[in-house]
Amino acid sequence: ARQLVRHDTTQTTTGQAHLRNVDRRDCRIRIGRHRPARTHIATFASEEKPPDADLPMVDPVINNISLTTVWVKDIESSKAFYIDVLGFEERDDVQLGDDFRWCTVGHPSQPELHVHLTTPGPPQSPEFSASIERALDEGGTFAIGLDVDDCTATVADLEAKGVVVIQQPEERPYGVEALIRDNTGNWLVLVEQREWTPEQMSDFVGDDPSVLSPMATD
To answer: CA torsion angle for 35, 39, 41, 47 (degrees, to 10)?
Structure first.
């Protein structure tokens, strides 16, 4: 009978490769002409040696960041802000019971990254939810960082749409940076990036890291 097996590079005393059964649910099989790149899988008679048995076993790895959460006060209005004002697109929007709504948005250039917009509440504890609500009311929570081609022009466009600007575009060792608020009051940092070195950052900051803070002008 044919079975799905994985080749383990651990050698037995006879020098033969050790083969063990694997659950089909644990295997990702890529359809096509190429062998799976991350997991060494083959289907063959149990007494046969797989054609690629001499290749090393490669452990699965983390591919990328796929989800981040932004706490908001109202999901519907925040969804509209991120889509209509910032140019994001809707991804998921599902009501799960009476107390939880799963809503994600994302930038068109990053289909793999979802931004989860959620309000404090169940399934979090009342104590945790209350702490998030206090932080949102204080207006000092950070949401996400955004990469822009022209920081000055982008901020001018957003300001014309009514977006609150915490910090106008300023020169930094790593580029031109500005800070805005979303409709909840979260900080969003916009950076027109350029190459920089730790030495440049050290010279810029000196002994006072507060030079990077917008709080003095907020």
So the answer is: 130
What sections of the chain are H helices per DSSP?
75-80, 126-138, 151-160, 198-205
Cα-to-chain-centroid distance, residue 195: 22
Query: Is 82 within 8 Å of 117 (Cβ atoms)?
Result: yes
Name beta bridge partners: 167: 179
* Mean pLDDT, the chain cut into blocks of 10 residues (218 residues total): 45 41 40 42 52 69 94 97 98 92 97 97 93 94 96 98 96 94 97 91 84 61
HSE toward the beta carbon, residue 212, CA cutoff 13 A? 14
Which of 175, 70, 169, 147 has its CA nearest to residue 116? 70
Phi, psi of 212 (to 5 degrees): -90, -5
The reported pTM is: 0.69
The angle subtended at Cα 75 by Cα 71 and Cα 77, nearest 5°, is: 115
Tell me, what amino acid is at 91? R
